[in-house]
Amino acid sequence: MRKEAVERKNEILDAADELFGKKGFDGTSTNDILEKVGIARGTLYHHFKSKEEIMDALINRYSDRLLGAARGVAADKTVPLLDRILRVVISMNVNGGNSEEIMEHIHKPQNALMHQKIQKMMIHGLTPILAEIISEGVEQGAFHTPYPYETMEMVVTYANIIFDDDMVDMTEEERGMRILAFIHNVERMLDVETGSFMTVAQMFGGNK
Predict the structure, then answer these.
(1) Nearest 5 degrees, angle CA 101-CA 102-CA 108?
(2) Sequence-ordered list of residues with C-beta below 8 angstroms from that of 27, at least 6 positions apart, any chain
(3) Domain residue ranges in the chain
(4) Residue 127 near residue 149, CB atoms below 8 Å
(5) CATH assignment of 52-203, given 2.60.40.10, 3.50.50.60, 1.10.357.10, 3.40.710.10?
């Protein structure tokens, strides 16, 4: 794709990102995007056929941003397995930087569809990254499971839904208990020593 076309697409995405954040996906019209970028409707439709297609492109951009760091951490085999898993989780944490802005956008009620698509991206994107680390651990004898991918799929899906404040209403005490139960069962599924993953629990607010 020509440089000009790439730049134009990014201008459209940047404008849509800002508008979705302020007005929500449903509250933003293609006219809003046209006015923000200062282009004709034909130019917009040359790059994107619909507002939904713009949203999907934004989510792909979010995916590259959120998962890129996680892949880099997972690939560094000089880091011990448990530390690598922890660093992958931290890299996906939404408590700062661009990730915080992204999550603030998608947790707005008017962005429910974006929220759903982001959750799907997280499950499909993060699971293989963690599964590769678990498979390496199985080869080393550190973890014991015949189902590295399926185990991580269950872990990521549970965490992605239960610890999403929009999905499950919990008191702080209930959240703490769920975190401890979550870590306990992850350790059982991987057949590791009790407390091996407690650092992850503490990072999310769980206590021993």
Answers:
(1) 95
(2) 110
(3) 1-49, 52-203
(4) yes
(5) 1.10.357.10
Contact 151, 130 (CB under 8 A): no
Indicate the length of the chain as a whole number. Answer: 208
For the entire predicted model, the pTM comes to: 0.74
| Distances from the Cα of 173 to the Cα of 87, 93, 178, 180, 191, angstroms | 26, 21, 9, 11, 27
pLDDT, tens digit, for every residue of 51-86? Answer: 989 988 988 888 888 788 899 999 999 999 988 998
Q: Which amino acid, residue 149?
A: Y
| Assigned token pair, 62 | 């979010």
* CATH 3.30.530.20 corresponds to the domain 1-49: no
Encoded amino acid at 190, one letter? L
pLDDT in tens, 105-127: 666 666 677 777 778 888 999 99
| Whole-number average pLDDT of the chain | 84
Alpha-carbon span 202 to 90, nearest angstrom: 12
Both tokens assigned to 198 = 């407690």
Tokens matching residue 94? 């939404």
